[in-house]
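Dear U.,

For the methods section draft, I wanted the exact inputs and outputs in one place so we can describe them consistently. I've listed the two proteins in the order they'll appear in the manuscript figures. Please don't edit the token lines directly; just add comments below if something needs changing.

First protein:
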Amino acid sequence: MRVDRTPRFVDAILGWRWTGLAARLLLVSAYLLGGVIKASNWSAAVAEQAHFGMNPPALWAALTIAVEIVGPLLILSGRRVWLGAGMLGIFTVLAAITANAFWLLPPGSERFMATNAFFEHLGLVGGLILAAMLAQAERDRA
């Protein structure tokens, strides 16, 4: 047996017609849920933006909600995936810099957690880029 051969069960999962949609939903679920929760609790959304020093907080809350809802819907629809991924990618980098500025923290457990969260956010950006690349490849094949 060749070592580089993909196991049949993996081929079956990757070839299933719903796998792509399920993967995109998993990728954007935190954003979509965050946008819906913020939209349903406006005062908390504004308070969150104020907490991070974003002024005016109401404007930033509205922009955050829009990005967290529109971006995932574009990705899930398969239309203008590049735009949805770009919106969420830029949002995620800015959020990581704002909320997880580990380089400003003294050594210790808080810095460790902020560093981990920062790089997890960068990993999400990588996933968003891959989603846009995959959508482009599918469009090119069609």
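Second protein (the one for the lower panel):
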Amino acid sequence: MECQECNQRPASLHFAQVVNGNKTEIHLCEICAKEKGYMTYPEEGFSLHSLLTGLFNFDTSSIGAQNTTSDPQVKELQCPKCEMTFTEFKRVGKFGCAACYHTFSNRLDSVFRRVHSGNTRHYGKIPKRQGGNLHTRKQLDAYKATLTNLIENEAFEEAAQIRDKIRELEKEMHQSKGGDQS
């Protein structure tokens, strides 16, 4: 397919727009697309790396405000194990070691929210056949944490309900263990 603008070069970019049910398609070569303003990225081209590292370029004004002191020689936060700085992490897009997660933990929530559609925690997926009582154990742990919070807040009626749910789950787990062994 030829470029609709110059009719000389092959069209490498195809744009489609639907307005009120009417679809309009434009087929342009790279040169005409740049001239028309459809391509606004740098001359060296657009790379997946620049897309991913762009996700890490969040507002650092609040972080800078925390590090502002009277001492002009304040060092940037750096991993004690691999010596990677947070600026390097943003540029490269990956950590140097496992200790980086702990070192930069207070700055990662905003990065994870951007990368994972607002979520900051990964729960994983557990196959039902292989997981066994793992789902029940996770639910049990969640109930126990809730129970602790309710007791601390002196919400004893709600705590009693959660306590009953915990006992019910523990009973189910005990029964399923007995059924698996016979």
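Candidate sentences for the figure legend, describing the second protein: The CA atoms of residues 2 and 10 lie 4 Å apart. The first strand starts at residue 13 and ends at 19.

Thanks,
Y.
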